[in-house]
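Predicting holo structure, glutamine bound.
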Amino acid sequence: MSGLYKLTLSQARAGLQGGKFTSLDLVQSCLERIKATEPKINACINLLEEHALETAKTLDAQGPKSDMPLWGIPLTLKDLICLKGFPTTCGAKFLADFTPFYDAEVVERLKQAGAVIIAKTNMDEFAMGSTTESSYFGRTANPWNLGKVPGGSSGGSAASVAACQAFGSLGSDTGGSIRQPAAFCGCVGIKPTYGRVSRSGVVAFGSSFDQVGPLARTVQDAAMLLEVIAGPDDKDAVSARLDLFPQGLPAQNFTEAAAQAGQKDPSDSLKGLKLGVPKELWDSGLSPEVEEACRNMLARFEEAGAVLTPVALPHQKYAIAVYYIMASAEASTNLARFDGVRYGFRAEHPQDLLDLYTRSRTEGFGEEVRRRIMLGTFVLSSGYYDAYYRKAAQIRRLMRDDFDRALGHCDMLVAPTATRTAWDFGFTESDPLFAYKMDLLTVTLNLVGLPGLALPVGLGAESGMPVGLQFMGRPFDEAALIKVGVAAEKLAPALGMPRAVAD
Ligand code: GLN
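Done. Tokens:
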């Protein structure tokens, strides 16, 4: 059966459950698609062909299970999420030969739900970057234009989903790495509330920011993935536990929320919705085509009955500085474990222990990772800790206060996902500070720990590349974002198959 790879995840599920095709059919279709598109986009670091075929056959032998939400569905995984028995490289030379002997909690949940992992996807080294250019395994190209970056750091996941190599993927978002590549490749990405999804078995970058979340071709599909991976886990110390919330965590039935919204007219979902429009995010130097596509959507929301309310985020101007101080500090401590002794890369013929540490880290890490370790070590050093790290932590608190105030009188906030569409390879590579500033619209949400949903709202009039819009919600209220996301998706122009991989 050809062309099955073009289905959405929910269509694939319906077909499997109805016996129209098997999991093996789906896996074979995706594998063919991967083989046809990989030479162009390089979205995958490891293709798990045999594993996927075997898993599909085992599932098929048992027949469709309606109580397993992802039964038989091929997915890809960002290569910082541990999958037992297969390399987890983090896009890094340091971990090129690292094979975990356990599954990440999110992988266990995917497996229990019946998913078939078909490939591990490319990423910026240790998830540091916004272009997927810093991967040790070569860069990934944007399926809409092979001369442009797919965004990052989950660029491989976004490209694999946009190019229909799989029905969905998991990425991680420390400062925008799910939402920004979703925007650049024209797919949907959700960054859950900090604590909503377990990070056990996920290589850490900035531990007070990191969240795992889904990328998919529709909001409904992303909701289905989120429902499977979300929820308390004792193995993650910051996982939000139900019993600690006196009134209970807001509902986690994301699939149902999406399905209900799907049956409604967008105006029924949007009528009376108070959408906060933060001036600081909209006035942050948007390219004309991004501004146009996003403002068009605001006009459609208003026509559908949403009430647009200007809100202020007065500390937004510090977002980049605060994020890069704190995320680098946390990265420098998290990456201290890569010492050439315990696991991963080890320099050859060391003179002594210090030489082993120094050379393993110098030879094993790429330039951007070394830059962040140095920056992070500096801002944590005695004498500078108070001036940088502590100050940043204080401003971070004020930023959360800004959001709490805004969300006190609005249901959610809305802003573009990135100031511009995907850029050419090399555009940010020579100027790290310039690259950092490109994260202006995404890092804020990680600083305040709140959930966000990014979705495509059309192609830029000038570049012809996808433009992304993001909704930012109240803590643990992903369901509200999903409902509004489904309505917004109906109002947005459909993008179709990415040009460079259209068949
Ligand atoms: N671009 C940001 C950074 O380089 C975000 C990365 C991420 O979310 N993993 O830090």
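The chain is about 40% helix and 10% strand.
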